[in-house]
Write a structure and sequence with these properties.
tetraacyldisaccharide 4'-kinase; lipid biosynthesis; 15 strands; kinase; 2 domains; six-stranded mixed sheet; Rossmann fold; EC 2.7.1.130
């Protein structure tokens, strides 16, 4: 309800939208929890980098103890304790400048002053103060929008009608079995603030998946195919919003997954696995939270984004 009121105040002009001199792309979601926003932010950053653009990324720096309203551009050596796992992951993995700040407009200003030619705001859909040129909403293909109720009765940060305002909807995963299309044909509702229907003005939609084929040893950086672990039991550390999808992706290789219980953005004592003969996989977002030496059998996954089945929609998406 508060988000809806703030949105109305910005749209009416009562609160001022602040713009910067370069294009701003906002990536976000309607639901609480992970949908794949940050991996897609990295994918988009790499696309613009390949097209010779200086990219700036805005991150809140969630759970970082130094994250504040004062903007700060990360270096490759900054740590997740201070600036959050997502921001540090993006700073280390991409060639973009990553600015951490709770005030996304101030972050955008700093990035422009630092030479950014295009800005991507990770998890910025509900931050209306920053003007934007393009909005992308990421929806989990398996959970979709849950019971379609707003927090705290359901998972929604905003009403479903918000999907009618964005420029592009990205469906993470191919397991919706047509349910998303049925929503568009039949209308979506009800919700706590009345029924809403999304019809011909619905944003374009693409499916994407986050896949894994290889891992890297965290101590010697040696590369291994996931197929090398077929038939083995692997401990998996995944402090992400929807780890079940990752488990299924790994299990496709005939691997038995033994999950390590951890909350989203959480931390465990990995030293207890130092003498464990069982291999340990972790996501790159988890790996940035720890320092060497890692357990001898510790590996980091190397996820990649695929647009459409077998990547056949990537050309269309990038046009």
């Amino acid at each position: 309800m508060i988000v809806k009121i703030r949105s109305s105040l910005y749209k009416s002009g009562f609160l001022k939208i602040r713009n910067v001199e370069v294009p701003v792309i906002v990536i976000g979601n309607l639901t609480a929890g992970g949908t794949g926003k940050t991996p897609f932010t990295l994918f988009l950053s790499e696309f613009f980098d390949e097209n010779k653009k200086n990219v700036g990324i805005i991150s809140r720096g969630y759970k970082g103890r130094r994250s504040s309203k004062d903007p700060y551009i990360l270096s490759k050596t900054d740590n997740a304790i201070d600036f959050g796992d997502e921001a540090v992951y993006l700073a280390r993995k991409s060639k973009a400048m990553v600015c951490v700040c709770k005030d996304k407009f101030r972050a955008a200003q700093m990035l422009v002053k630092s030479g950014a030619e295009i800005i991507i705001s990770d998890d910025g859909l509900q931050h209306y103060k920053l003007g934007r040129d393009y909005e992308i909403a990421v929806v989990d293909g398996s959970r979709l929008l849950g019971n379609q109720y707003l927090l705290p009765a359901g998972p929604l940060r905003e009403s479903i009608s918000r999907l009618g305002d964005v420029d592009l909807v990205l469906l993470n995963g191919d397991g919706d079995d047509g349910r998303y299309s049925n929503w568009i044909n039949a209308g979506i509702g009800p919700n706590p603030w009345g029924a809403c229907t999304l019809e011909s003005n619905m944003a374009a939609k693409f499916n994407f998946t986050i896949n894994n084929k290889v891992v890297f040893n965290l101590n010697d950086n040696s590369k291994h195919d996931l197929s090398d672990f077929t038939g083995k039991t692997i401990q998996v550390l995944a402090g992400i919003g929807n780890p079940e999808r990752l488990y299924k992706d790994i299990e496709k290789y005939g691997i038995v997954v033994s999950p390590i219980e951890i909350e989203d953005h959480g931390v465990v004592d990995i030293n207890i696995y130092s003498d464990d003969a069982m291999p340990l996989f972790m996501t790159p977002k988890d790996a940035v939270k720890y320092n060497k030496p890692f357990p001898k059998n510790a590996f980091v996954l190397d996820p990649f984004i695929q647009i459409g089945e077998d990547g056949e929609d990537e050309y269309a998406f990038c046009q």
